[in-house]
Design a protein that fits this description.
single chain; alpha/beta; Rossmann fold; six-stranded mixed sheet; four-stranded antiparallel sheet; about 35% helix; globular
């Protein structure tokens, strides 16, 4: 697998008294794309948030490029090279598309220039002066992804980026994610759309009841498709 970008070991997380993650273990090599698959409520989004220190109390180990991050504040974890694209997108409605894009601080060296981002997301270039509220759902999703690319993060945590979007936008996001992988970005993708995720990933981790229930390598996908459908209720 080469050098590890992310190694999660025995990760537990709580929201108040609710114990959500029960010893999650997985690892991602530099430049790999892995998915966290599972039904709603399985703990996939909480896993991303726990990696970043956003999920309340957590125990275990989260190593980012070999550095232990479990005791660090969220802003320090981000500076290790993590970029998070949340499911709710978080676009500032009173700012223009380009103002939203330029808002986050640069925290690493892997950032793309505004011109590179506009080449990747031509829709955003056309809408650069449009207010956040005037962007379509697909454009808002593109903007949420583009924003973390400018920050310099090289490990991308993408949460349900295709949810509720038209097929043509989903295809465009698939092309962008392939380009990012080709550029050497490490990507952890929480995804409900298995058809979208399957051809992109090097490895799939199935999360069930707050832990990893199954690991499926790309080469095993055909043999284990029925098993995955069973887990996912497809």
């Amino acid at each position: 697998m080469g050098d590890l970008a992310l190694k999660v070991s025995d990760l537990n997380a709580w929201y108040g008294e609710s114990h959500i993650l029960h010893g999650v273990n997985f690892e991602v090599g530099k430049g790999e794309l892995v998915t966290l698959l599972g039904r709603n409520g399985a703990g996939r989004t909480t896993t991303l948030k726990a990696i970043l220190g956003l999920a309340g109390r957590r125990t275990g180990s989260v190593k980012v490029n070999g550095i232990e991050a479990i005791g660090l504040a969220t802003h320090r974890i981000a500076r290790l090279g993590l970029g998070y694209c949340p499911e709710e997108r978080g676009i500032f409605s009173s700012l223009s598309c380009e103002e939203n894009l330029l808002l986050p601080p640069v925290v690493g060296k892997a950032g793309l220039s505004v011109d590179e981002i506009y080449a990747m997301f031509p829709n955003l270039k056309e809408r650069r002066n449009s207010q956040g509220t005037r962007l379509s759902g697909g454009e808002q999703q593109m903007l949420a992804m583009a924003r973390i690319l400018r920050s310099g993060a090289d490990i991308l945590l993408l949460d349900e980026v295709t949810e509720g979007l038209a097929p043509v936008i989903v295809q465009a996001l698939g092309r962008v994610i392939r380009q990012l992988k080709d550029k050497g970005f490490t990507i952890i993708l929480v995804e409900q759309n298995f058809r979208f995720a399957a051809p992109l990933a090097d490895r799939h981790y199935v999360i069930e009841h707050g832990k990893v229930a199954e690991v499926v390598e790309k080469a095993e996908l055909a043999a284990k498709t029925d098993l995955l459908h069973e887990y996912l209720g497809v």
